[in-house]
Amino acid sequence: MTESAASVPRLVVGYIATDRGRDAISLAISIARSVEIELVVTIIRPESSTFHAAGSIPKDGTGIVAQQLDEWLEEALALIPDDIAARGVIHTASNESKGLMEVASDEGAVAIVIGARATTLMRQFRIGTVATSLLHSSEVPVVLAPAGRSDIGPVSRITTLFGARPGAAALIGSAIEAATAFDVDLRLVALIENDGMAEDEIAEVTEFAEEYGGAVLAARASDLFASGRATVVSEGGADIEEAAESVEWISGELAFIGSSRLGHGRVFIGARARRLLRVLPVPVVVIPRRTLSRADDATGADTSARADGDTQAAEGEQR
């Protein structure tokens, strides 16, 4: 591999031969249309060699299993246009989530994309076993592709749902990095479980976002705000779901949310984030706590103390 090829970021795409796998592929293609990245389409083969979908693989030998997995991988790669860099991996692991995390680590991937389960009435994301395990263990961001709505076209805007508490620093910092990489606008949305913010409070959150985005990204954040490409708004509601349902979305948008502080440096999806996933109609990027902790350390105690004092905004960690 050449040095230039090695420097291209990689995105692990978890694939199974169902609509969920195709949703993940569709979203990965949309991301690759917006930023230079290599897709690593990954099928996990359980160590037991008894993996089968809808009874399509007879349990009569590893050769048949291997052949079927090879065919599925070829089908998955055939879904990806020729002008997008992509390759396939079949990785053996004890379970799908563990295997995806191992491949992400081996590849130095920037994130893992998986499809959510089929939607049900009044629920946008239905989190299955694999997604739940990833959201409790992954050390890289997990991107959830909504069922049937993952072909979003080029990424158009990054929206971060945050609160003025420690943990929001890196969430905002990650969103700034993404908006810069995609060359799109950034929107910071504070979800308020009561009345909306007054104008002076909006100004406070704007200042907070610039300072609390991380020391390394401070200049870049200031440029975004000064150019009008980054905005701060708030949405209120009786609860977090009602507030989130008030947010308007545009085609091609990605939502960023933070993980809980209970994940010990990894993604840990808490009750508040689960409630958000029930109503968000766009792909969601969940940022792991380890990333949040590193950026929090970089911001210094002053902004942390200030953020602790703001009790009106929804928690950035989505506890």
Automatic annotation (TrEMBL):
Residues 296-319 are annotated as: Disordered. SUPFAM superfamilies: Adenine nucleotide alpha hydrolases-like (SSF52402). InterPro entries: Rossmann-like_a/b/a_fold, UspA. It comes from the Bacteria. CDD domains: USP-like. Residues 10-145, 166-288 form the UspA domain. Belongs to the universal stress protein A family. This is Nucleotide-binding universal stress protein, UspA family. It comes from Brevibacterium casei CIP 102111.
